[in-house]
Design a protein that fits this description.
- The protein has about 400 residues and is mostly loops.
- About 5% of the residues lie in helices and about 5% in strands.
- It is built from 3 helices and 4 strands; from the N terminus they run E-H-E-H-E-E-H.
- The strands form 2 sheets. Strands 1-2 form a two-stranded parallel ribbon. The chain has a two-stranded antiparallel ribbon with strand order 3-4.
- A hairpin with a 5-residue loop joins strand 3 and strand 4.
- The longest helix is centred in the middle third of the chain and has 15 residues.
Length: about 400
């Protein structure tokens, strides 16, 4: 429970000023877990203050000095941070929904896991205004910046790996030497942005607006730009069509897809039913397989680096020795498949998803169901596993798995 903040903050702020100036009688301001919502702290000296978990929603912080402040998990929803100095501030997990940060300085700030929407999640998305903000060198890895307004913002050398920037407005922004590896920039606006030496390896740029003259820049060479299945060579396209007919007819027509080593990189296969297909050793880097049905599919040794398998059905699939580096597997179903007979009746038997010796390093497995999966030698190093479901008895089987 949050404690109500002192009615009169002036004595505390004065002692904190003395602390900042290293004068006698100075005491570092500690208002962690205090309720300061709606307070007017415009121009306040809060440098290095401890404000972790504090409620600062709708607070007036225009021109405030929050450099080096501890704002871990602070609630800044609706706060006015116009021209505030947040250099090197710890904003990990901070809530900034509907905050105003026009002209704010966030150089070298740490916003890992910061959420820019309310507790209801993306359905309650509220845009954050970072127009003209200085974020040079800011650490924004895994931050949620969906729909953020970053027009004319400076992100020089900022680290935005795996950052969610869907629909973000980056018009005229300085992205020089910024890192966007694995970031989702679907539908983002990058018109007139400075892109010199920016890195977009594995970033999703589907539907992003980019200057025609920038589209061929070397910075975008490793980015994910989805292809449709009609871009595939005719024999492979025909095999996909035959597999769809095989599934629809219950095996009476068409043919099961058998395409070991197939080149399907960056192809959009979202929602397709590829159950029981043979795709051993296939190249699926950057492929979109959102909600695809891959139950009992043989993907042994396949390269699924940077692939989007959000909410995909992978029950009973063979992913042994597969490479899923930085793959998106949020809410994917990777548990055991319950087997049924020809009449669709449960047999009481199951077939486990095989992840033996698979590499899932830095993959997003938030909310994924791994119950019953074989995890022997599986590498989860750096993977996001919040909310993932794993059998306790299986956890010891995995290799490097710091999240379990």
């Amino acid at each position: 429970m949050l404690s109500p903040g002192p009615n009169d903050l002036r004595p505390y702020l004065e002692r904190h000023r003395r602390w900042c100036e290293r004068r006698s009688g100075g005491v570092r301001l500690n208002l962690a877990m205090f309720d300061l919502s709606g307070r007017n702290l415009s121009g306040a000296l809060l440098r290095g203050a401890k404000l972790s978990g504090a409620r600062l929603s709708a607070a007036m912080l225009t021109g405030a000095d929050l450099s080096d402040a501890d704002l871990f998990a602070a609630d800044l929803a609706g706060a006015d941070l116009t021209r505030a100095d947040m250099t090197r501030a710890d904003l990990r997990g901070a809530l900034l929904a509907n905050a105003r940060l026009v002209g704010a300085r966030l150089k070298a700030a740490d916003l890992r896991g910061g959420a820019l929407f309310n507790a209801d999640g993306p359905s309650g998305l509220q845009v954050v205004d970072l127009s003209g903000a200085t974020l040079d060198g800011a650490f924004l890895v895994d931050a949620r910046l969906e729909g953020a307004i970053l027009q004319r913002a400076s992100l020089l050398k900022a680290d935005l790996r795996r950052t969610h920037l869907v629909g973000a407005d980056l018009q005229g922004a300085n992205l020089t030497q910024a890192r966007f590896e694995g970031a989702d920039l679907s539908g983002a606006i990058l018109l007139h942005a400075l892109l010199t030496d920016a890195r977009f390896d594995g970033a999703t740029l589907e539907g992003a607006q980019i200057e025609e003259s920038d589209a061929a820049r070397p910075e975008f060479e490793g980015a994910m730009r989805s292809r449709n299945d009609y871009d595939l060579k005719a024999p492979l396209r025909m095999k996909l069509d035959a597999h769809a007919l095989w599934i629809e007819s219950g095996g009476r027509a068409g043919a099961r897809l058998c395409a070991p080593g197939a080149d399907l990189h960056h192809v959009d296969l979202s929602g397709l039913n590829l159950a029981a297909a043979d795709l051993r050793g296939a190249r699926l880097t950057g492929a979109r397989l959102v909600r695809a049905r891959l139950s009992m599919t043989n993907l042994a040794g396949a390269d699924l680096s940077h692939a989007d398998l959000t909410e995909a059905h992978l029950e009973g699939a063979n992913l042994s020795r597969g490479v899923l580096f930085r793959a998106r597997l949020a809410r994917a179903r990777m548990g055991a498949l319950q087997l049924r007979d020809a009449r669709g009746r449960p047999t009481g038997r199951s077939w486990s998803t095989n992840l033996t010796s698979a590499s899932l390093s830095e993959a997003d497995l938030a909310g994924a169901d791994l119950r019953g999966a074989i995890l022997t030698g599986c590498d989860f190093y750096g993977a996001r596993l919040s909310g993932a479901l794993v059998d306790r008895s299986r956890r010891a089987e995995s290799g490097r798995s710091p999240g379990f």
